[in-house]
Amino acid sequence: MTDNTEILLQILRKLDKPAAISDILPHLDITERTLHRWLAQAVTSGQIQATGTKRGRRYTVAKMAETNLHPYFSATALQLLHQIRQPLITREPCTYRPEWLAAYQPNQTFYLSARQREILLQQGQQLRVELPAGTYAQRIFNRLLIDLSYNSSRLEGNTYSLLDTQKLLLEGMAADNKLDAEKIMLLNHKDAIRFLVDGIQRLDITPDNIRSLHYLLADGLVTAGAAGQIRQDSVRISASTYLPMDNQTRLTQQLSAITTTAQAITDPFEQSFFLLVHIAYLQAFIDVNKRTSRLACNIPLVRHNLVPLSFNDMDKDDYASAVLVTYERNDVTPLAELYVSSYLRSCKLYSVTVEAMGIDPLRVQYRQARRELIRAIVQQSLHGDALAKHIQAYTKTHIPPEHQEKFAADLHADLANLAPFNIAGMGFSVRELEAWLLGCET
């Protein structure tokens, strides 16, 4: 099915009645003659049904087309994609427009609609209690590592399968008959994702951290010394009339302006999508810009313990075209619809992962409190009544009433299993532990 037919189908479904040329034309930026041609092609293909003649001719969606709904694009997005897929010679040359960024006012301008953000939050907030930043991503790390590495690389043309990606990243087994660059691309994703998840509590949205992500993603794939460096050379975008900004100083300043604006955005999904759009649009690096934007857009999601975006089920050609719309038209509509669709798919996949793993959010939430209490118990050599009174006093002071029973159960389970191998980071020595354990026996 052509993009033209997709656009017409979306309009006809929206009109929800047999439509005349005069009903359809206001929804399109084309001539009436072109519309006649589009409709004739769609009728010939069987996607649209025509009844009547001349001025009484009306168009409706054919029954066969009802089972072929486009999974995510609106009529507006489809029209933009159609325009961007026209031959280069028919599209206007364009360059970077700093005024597009300057016009964005954090928490007043929104690329994602209120309804989109509401749906994303409903589905993405799978842990309902406050936990340390990055807890959710840590719990699903292996699944996130594989999915995000695979899909981000797939969008760049990498031919590793999902299974081969898993074997490479978790077992170190490279697939046969694959280019070395594909292996490096995936391994670089592994390093960058680990950097993001492990360092999320200190990983602010700054130019240095964006450059660090680029360095990890690009190392070994760009010329020596170019990884993490703002480019000095010009770049060209294939299949696009967009000519990115040149001049290293201006690029550096603009990257700083992007991160400063992003920092001020309070909604994590808007912040995420803003980074996805503008880091790719700037093209601050010699290559690997879109990969950098895809990882950077996960910083707000990981920090807020939301489901990360792994770009699951995102069609490579749709993504490439949607990005070109942002480059050439500064219109985010198709990319926003792709973002929402792919994110909701990620939520479904990760909700199953969380259920299978049996995440215990309250145990995670009070981990530090339990460790502090265990340290005091061991170092003060508390047993019997003294131990019970200390636990009761601490719990009453530091833990909300509705969580006290669960906290006490987790604490006693930890005390029962204390051993030299699991006391790292608790602040007491093996000798102190042995003395406390000896007191338990007596």
Would you write up a description of this structure?
It holds the Pfam family Fic. The record marks 156 as: Important for autoinhibition of adenylyltransferase activity. InterPro entries: Fido, Fido-like_dom_sf, Fido_containing. It comes from Thiothrix subterranea. This protein has 442 residues and is mostly helical. Helix content is 58%, strand content 3%. The protein has helices at 3-15, 21-24, 32-45, 75-84, 98-102, 114-124, 135-139, 141-154, 162-171, 180-198, 207-218, 248-263, 268-282, 289-296, 299-303, 316-329, 333-357, 361-365, 367-379, 384-398, 404-416, 430-441; strands at residues 48-51, 58-61, 94-95, 242-243. A hairpin with a 6-residue loop joins strand 1 and strand 2 (58-61). Helix 1 (3-15) runs antiparallel to helix 4 (75-84), helix 8 crosses helix 10 (180-198) and helix 10 packs antiparallel against helix 11 (207-218). The protein is elongated and about 100 Å long.
Q: Label the structural class.
A: mainly alpha
The succession of helices and strands, N to C, reads: HHHEEHEHHHHHHHEHHHHHHHHHHH
The biggest sheet, with number of strands, parallel, antiparallel or mixed sense and barrel status, is: 2 strands, antiparallel
User: Which residues sit in consecutive blocks of at least 5 with pLDDT less than 50?
Assistant: none
The share of residues in extended strands comes to under 5%
Q: Cα distance, first to last residue? A: 80 Å
Please name the defining characteristics of this protein.
442 residues, mainly alpha, two-stranded antiparallel sheet, two-stranded parallel sheet, 22 helices, 4 strands, elongated, Fido_containing
